[in-house]
Design brief:
Layout lengths: L1 H10 L23 E4 L8 E5 L9 E6 L11 E3 L5 E4 L10 E10 L4 E13 L7 E2 L3 E5 L9 E4 L2 E2 L12 E8 L8 E3 L5 E4 L12 E10 L11 E4 L2 E11 L1
Parallel strand pairs: 1-7, 9-17
Antiparallel strand pairs: 2-5, 3-6, 4-5, 6-7, 8-11, 10-14, 12-15, 13-14, 15-17, 16-17
Length: 251
């Protein structure tokens, strides 16, 4: 029985020769949570945005960060503390340029030999309402026949916003700021706040061929804007950003 047991042991066991080391199998694993950064942050920098954890990391192992935004272009956006695993952003980011970064985190010894990882670190840039809605043209011309019934759609205004389409920052609204002249009625037209459709609200009897009517249309995102101070003006306030466009109708 002893001989058969020895044969079984030799068949199922790796024999380590002189000068050889047993294979190292680490039971540790990197904990790399996803991180977020709001775009357009102001100094001071760097700012800590999260932490990578290596349970029971010995003092002779260090954290390393690689990939676009770290050691590749755009270089130096993100750094990691080699001892604590704190991840920091070094300057202001622009979501419209790059909306997320995918980096690799690992631990190494002082000679650069990888001990743990690499593990993927995803950093997402959060959108701010930092882009004005823009009309392609500063002046639009529409026509409506005199005597047209109330509710006639004259035209549709469309603006564009470069903010994140998955957030309210890119949800546009429209309103009429001013009508000139304000006769025969100060409210001859209505604009659908969401679709941008301009329709007549005046009685057909008052929809005369003269005079030419000019409307000031605003597109905005966020809260309702205040009236502009001048023709085709642009305004920016903390809760919204918007841009106006004139629309001329020949009746």
């Amino acid at each position: 029985m002893l001989i058969w047991g020895l044969i079984y042991f030799l068949r199922h066991t790796e024999v380590v020769g002189l000068g050889q080391k047993l294979p190292y199998r680490s039971k540790r694993s990197l904990l790399v949570p996803p991180m977020i950064v709001t775009e357009n942050q102001r100094a001071p920098f760097p700012r800590i945005i999260g932490k990578v954890i290596s349970p029971e990391k010995p003092v002779n192992h260090i954290f390393r960060l690689k990939g676009p935004g770290a050691d590749q272009d755009p270089k130096g956006l993100f750094t990691i503390d080699i001892d604590t695993g704190d991840v920091s952003v070094s300057r202001s980011l622009d979501r419209e340029a790059i909306d997320s970064y995918q980096l690799e985190v690992s631990t190494t010894d002082f000679d650069g030999n990888v001990i743990e990882g690499p593990a993927i670190l995803v950093i997402t840039v959060i959108d701010q309402n930092d882009n004005r809605p823009i009309f392609k043209e500063s002046r639009y011309t529409g026509e409506v026949l005199e005597g047209s019934p109330t509710g006639t759609t004259v035209m549709t205004m469309t603006a564009f916003d470069a903010d994140d389409p998955g957030t309210d920052n890119a949800v546009l609204r429209y309103n009429i700021i001013r009508q000139s002249p304000d006769k025969p009625s100060p409210n001859m037209f209505y604009i659908d706040a969401e679709r941008g459709d301009i329709v007549t609200v005046i009685s057909p009897a008052l929809l005369d061929r003269e005079p030419k009517v000019q409307l000031m249309i605003h597109s905005y995102s966020g809260s309702i804007p205040s009236a502009p101070s001048g023709p085709a003006s642009s305004q920016t306030s903390p809760g919204f950003q918007h841009m106006s466009s004139r629309c001329v109708f020949f009746l």
